Every structure is written in C-alpha cells, then in structure tokens.
Amino acid sequence: PFLLLLNEHSSKQKISLAKKIIPGSLILRYNFGNYGFESLGKIEVIRGDLGVSDSQIKSLGNLRKVYKDLWIKSYEHHLQLNSLYPLSEVGGNVSIRDVGFNSLETLEKVKGNLNIRGTEISDLGNLKFVGGNFIAPRSLYENYDFSGIEIKGKVRLYND
Predict the structure, then answer these.
(1) In whole angstroms, what is the distance from residue 135 CA to residue 112 CA?
(2) CB-based burial of residue 88 (10 Å sphere; 0-12 exposed, 13-18 middle, 19+ buried)?
(3) How many CB atoms within 10 Å of residue 154?
(4) Cα separation of 78 and 61, whole Å?
(5) What's the per-residue H, E or C state across the chain?
(6) pLDDT mean over 128-147
(7) Mean per-residue pLDDT for 90-95?
(8) In what order do the strands lie in the sheet with 129-130?
(9) Mean pLDDT of 90-103
(10) Which residues of 22-33 are buried (b: 16+ CB within 10 A; e: fewer)?
(11) Rounded to an integer, what distance in angstroms lies between the CA atom of residue 29 and that of residue 19?
(12) What are 8-12's contacts with CB under 8 Å, separation 24+?
C-alpha cells in the first residue's frame, strides 16, 4: 500500500491509502504530488476524476471504473502509460492525447464524450457505448468498426 494525494484542484485535498476504492479525484503528474510508483496496484474504483500527465505510471493495475472524467496527456514526452487495461467504464468524459498506445482495449462504456484526437488509436477494442460525442482524427476513421457501438452524440472528425 502507498499514500495518495486526492482532489488536487480543490481546497478539500485529502490523503488516502491506495485501497480498492479511492474516495476522490486522483491526478498523476511527472515529479509532482503523486509520483514514484509504476502501477495503481489493487485500486479498482476511483470515485472522482483520474488525470495522467507525463506520469511515471506504467499500469492501471486493477482499475475497472472511474466515476467522473478520465484524461491522459503527454506534454513533455514523459508519459509511461501504455495501456488502458483493465479499465471498462468511465462515468464522465474521456480525453486522450499524445499517447503511445493504439487501442482502447477493455474500455466498454463512456457516459460522456470520448475524445481521441491527437492519437494513433486505431482499435476501439471492446467499446460498446458513448453517451456523448465521439471525437477522433479523420485519418483513422476508416479503421474504426462502429457496428457494436451505441453513440448518443455525434461523430466528429478532425484533421490532426
């Protein structure tokens, strides 16, 4: 077990032991606050947002669900995360940019928008539901198989 700083953008920050359920938002940044570990380990649920920015984390461990938003971004090319496995559900928006993986793998349900602009994600994996808009690079659109996916919003394509 290890300690986590939660709710980075709130005046109600708290420290939590890394246990199965995390009771707030977790932000992982390079050399800031939550760093020094390579996996989320036995964490299965985050009851807030999960943000990963140029973090040393390589694995989501046992993480299955994020209650709010998920964002993953590499600003200075320090991002080590190479997979969304075993994540299956996000209760808010998902925004992924400048990552080194090309599949959504086990992700099945995104209740908000799914934005994968600025990525090389060509495989939608197990995706079954997007509650908002699906936003992606136009260059990869023809690789996508939408046959088993319910998208409540619009498909928006951009030249990245």
Answers:
(1) 11
(2) middle
(3) 11
(4) 19
(5) CCEEEECCCCCCCEEEECCCEECCCEEEECCECCCCCCECCCCCEECCCEEEECCCCCECCCCCEECCCEEEECCCCCCCCCCCCCCCEECCCEEEECCCCCECCCCCEECCCEECCCCCCCECCCCCEECCCEEEEHHHHHHCCCCCCEECCCEEEECC
(6) 93
(7) 98
(8) 21-22, 45-46, 65-66, 89-90, 109-110, 129-130, 150-151
(9) 94
(10) bebbbbbbbeee
(11) 20
(12) 8/33
Given a contact cutoff of 8 angstroms between Cβ atoms, the answer to whether 96 and 117 are in contact is no
Average pLDDT over residues 74-97: 91
Residue 108 tokens read as 């099945």
CA dist., res. 25 & res. 131, Å (int): 21
What is the pTM for the complete model shown? 0.92
